[in-house]
């Protein structure tokens, strides 16, 4: 998937897959086109996923703005 080129006019511009490695072990693969997220945003998303994984009761901090506010 590392060489797959998303077409910007066709959504979604991301993909998520889970692969079973063993009965108790999985691998999560995320493909995110840089058209919709930069490296810093992907890093934030990854860090949040790790927090949820390590603590299923984790609740992210409310930031108080949404995409429309940002734009």
Quick structural gist:
28% of the residues lie in helices and 20% in strands. It has 71 residues and is an alpha+beta fold.
Word description of this protein:
The structure is a single chain. With 71 residues, the protein is of the alpha+beta class. It has 2 helices and 2 strands. It has helices spanning 39-54, 67-70; strands at 14-20, 26-32. It has a two-stranded antiparallel sheet with strand order 1-2. Strand 1 and strand 2 (26-32) form a beta hairpin. The longest helix is centred in the middle third of the chain and has 16 residues, at 39-54. The radius of gyration is 15 Å and the shape is flat.
Write the layout of secondary structure elements.
Blueprint: E1 14-20, E2 26-32, H1 39-54, H2 67-70
Antiparallel strand pairs: 1-2
The major sheet is characterized as: 2 strands, antiparallel
Shape: flat
**Unreliable runs:** none
Instruction: Find the count of extended strands (DSSP E, 2+ residues).
Output: 2
Portion of residues in beta strands equals 15-25%
What pattern of helices and strands is seen along the backbone? EEHH
Order of adjacent strands in the largest pleated sheet = 1-2
Radius of gyration: 15 Å
């Amino acid at each position: 998937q590392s060489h797959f080129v998303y077409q910007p006019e066709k959504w979604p511009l991301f993909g998520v897959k889970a692969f079973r490695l063993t009965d108790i072990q999985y691998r999560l693969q995320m493909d995110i086109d840089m058209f919709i997220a930069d490296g810093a945003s992907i890093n934030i998303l990854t860090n949040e996923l790790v927090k949820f994984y390590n603590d299923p009761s984790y609740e992210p901090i409310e930031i108080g703005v949404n995409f429309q506010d940002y734009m």
